[in-house]
Design a protein that fits this description.
Layout lengths: L12 E10 L2 E11 L3 E6 L6 H8 L7 E6 L2 E3 L4 H6 L2 E4 L11 H6 L5 E2 L2 E2 L1 H14 L15 H14 L4 E5 L7 H16 L3 E5 L3 H7 L2 E6 L2 E7 L5 H9 L17 E10 L2 E9 L2 E6 L6 H9 L4 E8 L2 E2 L5 H6 L2 E4 L3 H5 L6 H6 L15 H14 L16 H14 L4 E5 L7 H16 L3 E5 L3 H7 L2 E6 L2 E2 L3 E2 L5 H8 L9 H5 L1
Parallel strand pairs: 3-10, 3-11, 6-9, 9-10, 15-20, 15-21, 18-19, 19-20
Antiparallel strand pairs: 1-2, 1-4, 4-5, 7-8, 11-12, 13-14, 13-16, 16-17, 21-22, 21-23
Helix pairs in contact: 14-15
């Protein structure tokens, strides 16, 4: 964290009195944000608080209904991202927008190529990319193919793309969501380099410890309005939590040693696409964490266990029953439930109502007569789910698309736990949700574990994994390491294991079983 300057230059970019309305929703109301050159300015708030709308306005994707945007003290109107880029505003998206079959150089200059006599001038493009890379300390081989780069290197390519186009204001949307600890430190070093060059950085994150570590100034948005703006030196987690959610900051800790009960999920040498000889056991009353850099087979492992990806070898047992050749429905009937990693594509029918979504995969909510669904029973059950999980919705008859991301995720978690499963697959259960929804989900997972549920938790948030899990296995290049008790792990050690920098541990617990 750098000290906030005593005498600040005028803002490089400023949003004044921004208001934005959609039918039935006020997304922003009188929001103010001023970002100075040489400053990392964090924007925090709950999902649905209005951060994304504000950033879309800053990047030219949306037009404000009230207020104004100023660059260098002059009012400007950005009608599109192209206008924003031309004005010196760039965005580094959470989900990378790279062509994997192209080189770094080709990705960076794509759409902004230098030409000579009507032909692509690769030499000048390579020289320009190298100059930008050296100036900002972004070490990437311009001739490397993107598909061969790690996640951290791909992110540097995204930053290079923005800088190559002359950005002076850079918006980072949840930039650490897919990074391991070493890559996070490297990113923070890159941000410090941007700050040292006098650029303005807008840093959006749900991870308050990262906000406190990297930013100079913080603006909190709540219910569409800016409710606080102050130097990071004057902030602490408790103050931020109170401003964001009106309460204390939740923590994933408060763990007690689980396990010791009957093994209810057992994999022996399970093989599938991107999964090689996966072996694990999860007992009643235990949370087994699976850590790994994105793209090492975690997604495929969950899909193979759930029955939506073909298994080519090995065995799977659920509650003592052979389930390797059962379909998804058969596995659910044995007591398997799943919180998938992509709630929009895999868990929700967004145009459908809350009660219709609550019925998906849940036998308890299918109150049927001979020919039709008992809608009243389904609505009543969904109403209890909504109340029990604190889902903010005027009615169970609104479409799932109308909910914020955090409330959508609580609906999915409530539905899957509501069927009283024996085994829960939880893939990134708090990804992209605010600290309020995070607290609810953590509490419900702990409660379910304490009631005897076996949980297989796949996550990228290492603090969450270590705080909730009893044991952790690492997935690297499709293979699972032996399990390690969380008491023997730190974030740093887990990060080394995820990148293969530490020898594989011995699973002493497995040897004793």
């Amino acid at each position: 964290m750098s000290p906030h300057a005593v005498h600040e230059p005028p803002p490089l970019v400023e949003l004044r009195g921004i208001g934005k309305r959609y039918p039935g929703v006020v997304a922003n109301r009188d929001v103010n944000l001023a970002v100075h050159p040489g400053q990392i300015h964090a924007v925090v708030g709950e999902n649905g608080a209005g951060k994304s709308t504000l950033m879309r306005i800053l990047y030219g994707e949306e037009q404000p209904d009230e207020g104004e945007l100023l660059l260098d003290g002059e009012t400007v109107r950005l009608r599109s991202p192209a206008d924003a880029i031309a004005a010196g505003i760039g965005m580094v998206h959470q989900h990378f927008m790279l062509a994997e079959n192209l080189t770094v150089l080709e990705n960076v200059i794509l759409g902004a190529e230098n030409t000579r006599w009507g032909l692509l001038d690769r030499r000048s493009g390579r020289r320009a990319v190298r100059e930008v890379s050296e100036r900002y300390g972004l070490d990437v081989d311009p001739d490397a193919t993107v598909e061969h780069l790690g996640v951290g290197q791909r992110q540097r390519v995204e930053i290079l793309k923005v800088l190559y186009r002359g950005a002076r204001v850079l918006i980072f949307d949840e930039p650490t969501a897919v990074l391991v600890p070493g890559e996070v430190r490297a990113l923070f070093g890159s941000l410090a380099g941007l700050r040292a060059q006098g650029l303005a950085v807008v840093f959006i994150s749900h991870k308050l410890d990262e906000v406190l570590a990297v930013s100079d100034h913080i603006t909190v948005i709540r219910a569409g309005a800016s409710v606080g703006s102050f130097a990071t030196a004057d902030a602490d987690p408790r103050r931020l939590s109170r401003l964001i959610v009106g309460g204390e900051l939740p923590a994933p800790a408060a763990r007690r040693r689980g396990g010791g009960g009957e093994v209810v999920l057992r994999l022996r040498g399970l093989r599938a696409e991107a999964v090689a000889d996966a072996t694990l056991e999860v007992a009643q009353g235990e949370i087994l964490g699976i850590a790994g850099v994105q793209g090492n087979g975690q997604t495929e492992l969950i899909e193979a266990i759930m029955g939506i990806r073909a298994v080519s070898g090995g065995s799977l047992h659920i509650a003592g029953r052979e389930a390797t050749h059962l379909g998804t429905r058969g596995r659910r009937r044995l007591g398997l439930a799943c919180i998938p990693e992509d709630r929009h594509r895999q868990a929700l029918a967004l145009p459908a109502t809350l009660w219709e979504n609550a019925m998906l995969g849940s036998e308890d909510l299918r109150r049927r007569s001979r020919w039709r669904v008992d809608r009243k029973a389904a609505r009543d059950a969904t109403g209890r789910l909504v109340a029990g999980f604190g889902i903010r919705s005027p009615s169970v008859d609104v479409p799932a698309a109308a909910l914020s991301g955090g409330n959508q995720q609580k609906l999915v978690v409530g539905r899957e736990l509501g069927g009283r499963p024996k085994v829960l697959l939880a893939a990134h259960p708090t990804r992209g949700v605010d600290v309020g929804a995070q607290a609810v989900i953590w509490e419900r997972l702990r409660d379910a574990r304490d009631d005897g549920l076996a949980v297989l938790l796949v996550g990228a948030d290492l603090d969450e994994l270590l705080g909730l899990s009893d044991r952790v296995q690492v997935m690297l290049r499709g293979r699972l390491s032996p399990a390690v008790p969380v008491g023997e792990l730190t974030v740093e050690r887990l990060g080394r294991m995820m990148t293969g920098a530490e020898p594989e541990p011995v699973d002493s617990a497995a040897e004793n079983r």
